[in-house]
């Protein structure tokens, strides 16, 4: 029984948000907030009324238990494996005057989310969803890469559509070749793929957004989105392509804007029973326009989740 619209698989982390703009060493206090791209997408989806589940690995520690509690409070069906051998991931966020962010983590490469394994890609859980959404940051280790491939294969076998946002964090990888290979394996099986303009060369071999979108479709992606920051997003489905401008907003913090985009896109596309990529192109463009609005709203608040809207706060 498909009693979930979207199941998100990957990292749940703690973002430590600063009390002021500028260098981290000049900040006096930090606020612990939920983070991690797939977890942020799950929160955004749940707030938009989408039946959402989340699976991942966190440390068996106070931060891990905080994440379990906070995600469940959003209405997400949470399945977190608590690992004793590694701590929950922590990322300190620094903001510049324009709201652009940089990150520092004392444990990024050794946090519990990197322990996701094929057993965490439970086919019974995946089969309950219409869509599986995932990324790459929790899949740096060989077991993690096997888990992602197993999850995507289970989705294909069970008729579950795949949504993929690589959310590339190059500093997590000693060698980018396994990341490229992972994307080459996953992208051809995706109903929806979202890449930022900064990621397209690594993941597709094309630096131009239009050529990258065309390449994604040629690889087998149903709906290919390339986000362009304040310029909006480029979307392609088959031979149809459109640039969807973003509405201007007063940017406070760009953290989580891409996750908000994905949540808005999937929320709009998942309305009704039709497969995601079976929507008319006009519906796809409308979904991207809504996704841009959600991403823009995220940028008006500090942190990845504070600005994620609830149902009815933004029109489709």
Automatic annotation (TrEMBL):
Q: Which Pfam families has this protein been placed in?
A: PfkB (PF00294)
Keywords for the protein's UniProt record, in alphabetical order:
ATP-binding, Kinase, Nucleotide-binding, Transferase
Going by the entry's taxonomy, the superkingdom of the source organism is recorded as Bacteria
- InterPro entries in alphabetical order: Carboh/pur_kinase_PfkB_CS (IPR002173), PfkB_Carbo_kinase (IPR050306), PfkB_dom (IPR011611), Ribokinase-like (IPR029056)
Entry GO MF terms: ATP binding; kinase activity
Where the record annotates domain Carbohydrate kinase PfkB, the positions are 5-309
Q: Which family does it belong to?
A: Belongs to the carbohydrate kinase PfkB family.
Identify this protein by name. PfkB domain protein
Name the source organism.
Anaeromyxobacter dehalogenans (strain ATCC BAA-258 / DSM 21875 / 2CP-1)
């Amino acid at each position: 029984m498909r009693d979930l619209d979207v199941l998100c698989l990957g990292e749940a982390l703690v973002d430590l948000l600063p009390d002021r703009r500028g260098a981290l060493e000049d900040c006096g206090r930090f606020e612990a907030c939920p983070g991690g791209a797939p977890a942020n997408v799950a929160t955004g989806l749940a707030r938009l009324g989408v039946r959402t589940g989340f699976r991942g690995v966190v440390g068996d520690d106070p931060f891990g238990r905080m994440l379990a509690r906070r995600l469940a409070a959003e209405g997400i069906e949470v399945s977190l494996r608590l690992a004793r051998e590694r701590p929950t991931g922590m990322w300190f966020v620094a903001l510049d005057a324009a709201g652009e962010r940089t990150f520092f983590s004392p444990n990024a490469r050794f946090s519990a989310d990197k322990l996701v394994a094929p057993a965490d890609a439970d086919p019974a859980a995946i089969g309950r969803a219409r869509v599986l959404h995932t990324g790459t940051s929790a899949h740096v280790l060989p077991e993690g890469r096997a888990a992602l491939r197993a999850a995507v294969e289970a989705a294909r076998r069970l008729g579950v559509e795949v949504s993929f946002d690589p959310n590339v964090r190059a500093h997590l990888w000693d060698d980018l070749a396994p990341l490229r290979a992972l994307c080459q394996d996953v992208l051809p099986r995706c109903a929806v793929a979202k890449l930022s303009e900064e990621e397209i060369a690594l993941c597709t071999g094309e630096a131009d957004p239009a050529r990258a979108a065309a390449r994604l479709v040629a690889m087998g992606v149903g709906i290919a989105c390339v986000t362009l920051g304040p310029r909006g997003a480029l979307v392609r489905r088959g031979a149809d392509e459109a640039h969807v401008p973003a509405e201007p907003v007063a940017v406070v913090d760009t953290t989580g804007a891409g996750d908000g985009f994905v949540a808005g896109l999937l929320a709009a596309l998942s309305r009704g029973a039709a497969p995601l990529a079976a929507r008319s192109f006009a519906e796809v463009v409308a979904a991207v326009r809504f996704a841009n609005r959600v991403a823009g709203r995220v940028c008006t608040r500090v942190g990845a989740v504070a600005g994620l809207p609830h149902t009815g706060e933004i029109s489709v």
